[in-house]
Amino acid sequence: MPTKQYRFYDLIMALFVTMLLLSNLLSSAKIIDMGIALGSIRLIFDAGTLVFPISYIFGDILTEVYGYARSRRVIWAGFAATALMGFFTWLAGVLPGESDWQQYAGQTAYDAILGGISGLIVASLIAYWVGEFSNSYVIAKMKVAARGRRVWSRTIASTVVGQAVDTVTFFSIAVLLGVFPAGAMFSLIITNYVMKVGVEVVLTPVTLRVISSLKAAEKEDYYDNYTRFNPFRLEV
Predict the structure, then answer these.
(1) Is residue 221 situated within a structural domain?
(2) Per-residue pLDDT tens for 85-107?
(3) In a domain, 51, yes or no
(4) 12-61 pLDDT tens trace
(5) 189-213: per-residue pLDDT in tens?
(6) Separation CA 125–CA 196 (nearest Å)
(7) Which residues are CB-neighbours of 142 under 8 A, at least 6 positions away?
(8) Which of 25, 78, 84, 170 has the fewest CB atoms found within 10 Å of its own CB?
(9) Range of the domain at 14
């Protein structure tokens, strides 16, 4: 039986991977401090938080429309792209720099912005893997249980679960590897988690509109009634 062809699946995959790579790059570049505190919790977050929640929205859309198996392939594509970015960023950093470039603090600037990306990529890959698969699994199971009703409830619930797993895992590993200061870990976890879930909630009407439009355009509304949820299987 031939594999069904979709008009927008590849585009959503590309957008998903783009947001993922951009979030990793921004995370290594800057920690933002809004100058606001609630008790001992400061409103600080890595710059990647500005775009990373969007990748989860695309993840929600992929699973809701195309099913867990096709979403699983996209998750692995993002994993491979992130690993490649980490490797070549590290490789570029250890190769000798041109002398004129070095005089203008080229290597120092490179190391300051991207020098810690290897540790960040390790933390990101582990956190991304467990978080995205948790997110996709929750959506797929809730969709079957609810018989397709209440889409909003599963897009939000899956983000609550997936982002909790992702955020705690990411910052715990990143702090252990020296990417972020240990003293800021608790504030980073709380602030990043609240912001990520908040973005999902605020953009829920947009997410639902995109899902509805895609289902109509693709003539697809996949239910994972018989799906094998092993994350290491790549067939659809």
Answers:
(1) no
(2) 989 988 988 888 888 887 777 88
(3) yes
(4) 999 999 999 999 888 777 888 877 877 777 778 878 888 888 998 999 99
(5) 998 899 889 999 999 999 999 999 9
(6) 18
(7) 153, 154, 157, 158
(8) 84
(9) 9-30+45-215
CATH number at residue 154: 1.10.1760
Tell me if 4 is assigned to some domain: no
Query: How far apart are the C-alpha atoms of 181 and 196, rounded to whole Å?
Result: 21
Range 6-12, long-range pairs (CB < 8 A, 24+ positions): 6/66, 6/218, 6/220, 7/217, 7/218, 8/214, 8/217, 8/218, 9/62, 9/66, 9/70, 9/218, 12/58, 12/61, 12/62, 12/74
Q: pTM of this prediction?
A: 0.90
The span from the CA of 71 to the CA of 143, in Å, is 14
Whether residue 112 is predicted with pLDDT greater than 70 in this model: the reply is yes
The residue among 214, 206, 216 whose CA lies nearest residue 57 is 206
Could you give the number of structural domains in the chain? 1
Query: What type of residue is 185?
Result: M
Domain presence at residue 223: no
H/E stretch holding 44 reads: strand 41-46
Mind giving me the DSSP string for 95-113?
SPPPHHHHHTTHHHHHHHH
